[in-house]
Amino acid sequence: MNNLDPNIFSGFRLLDIIDILLVAIIIYYIYSLIKGTIAVNILIGVALFYGIYLVVKQMEMRLLTEIFGGFISVGSIALIVVFQQEIRRFLIHIGKNISLRRKRFFWSFLNTKKTSQIDNGEQLKPIIDACRSMSRSRTGALLVFSRYFDEEYYQSSGEYIDAPVSKRLLESIFFKNSPLHDGAVVIVDFRIMTASCVLPLSDSEDLPPQFGLRHRAAIGVTEVSEAVAVIVSEETGEISFAKDGNVNMNLSPEELEKILREEL
């Protein structure tokens, strides 16, 4: 027997389906940003707190209902305070992606097919040679490759250089006695735009304990932008590559060159 009311979906519109899909996308997008961070534990605690409030309210426990209700009445403000870093990262991520896609769409009309097919092997050579040399000497380095140079995002925290990439220049910047060796070098179109640049650190709890500030900064900048990063460990000389918050570790110079050829 079929007891299902045939008119149960009569008021269901196409816009309702779109509404549900958009909410699902937003929830997934927010979860992907806070996944692996302490914010997940806070969110679980908030959900449990609200669940307890519903239970005591249903059981008509007036005192507890008043206490929990008082906290929930100011919950929106408290959530903004608690999740201020995640909200900031969420807004930065959206703004950066929109800006980058707009610039990419504009430049796609100016770049010819011949330009896009130019082999970048010669341009990568000084970068690979510098990484190989710094890996052997265990010189810590952090190189960020960005498709576009955002003055407000990069230049405000670093020293503006705007010079062609060269092996000696990279080694000089990251030399341990150099005043610019702390921070990152930002490279755009094979030009060193800034050095000693301060990057946002990743607060993910899933990172290995041996990751230092360079690795966390590389992961952090790739989480909030479309940039990629190369890290040379000062302790081990190991070369790593970061993209979209993920890290490929223990790369040889040849493996690094292959990855950069595809990414750049």
UniProtKB/TrEMBL annotation:
Record field: transmembrane: 12-31, 37-56, 63-83
EC code: 2.7.7.85
Domain DAC: 84-253
Catalytic activity: 2 ATP = 3',3'-c-di-AMP + 2 diphosphate
InterPro entries membership: C-di-AMP_synthase, CdaA, CdaA_N, DisA, DNA_integrity_DisA_N_sf, DNA_integrity_scan_DisA_N
UniProt keyword annotations, A-Z: ATP-binding, Cell membrane, Membrane, Nucleotide-binding, Nucleotidyltransferase, Transferase, Transmembrane, Transmembrane helix
GO BP annotations listed: cAMP biosynthetic process
Pfam families linked to this entry: CdaA_N, DAC
Enzyme class: transferase
GO molecular function, one term: adenylate cyclase activity
Task of the protein: Catalyzes the condensation of 2 ATP molecules into cyclic di-AMP (c-di-AMP), a second messenger used to regulate differing processes in different bacteria.
Family under the similarity heading: Belongs to the adenylate cyclase family. DacA/CdaA subfamily.
PANTHER family reported for this sequence: DIADENYLATE CYCLASE
Oligomer status and interactors: Probably a homodimer.
Record protein name field: Diadenylate cyclase
The species this protein was found in: Sphingobacterium gobiense
Gene name in the database record: dacA
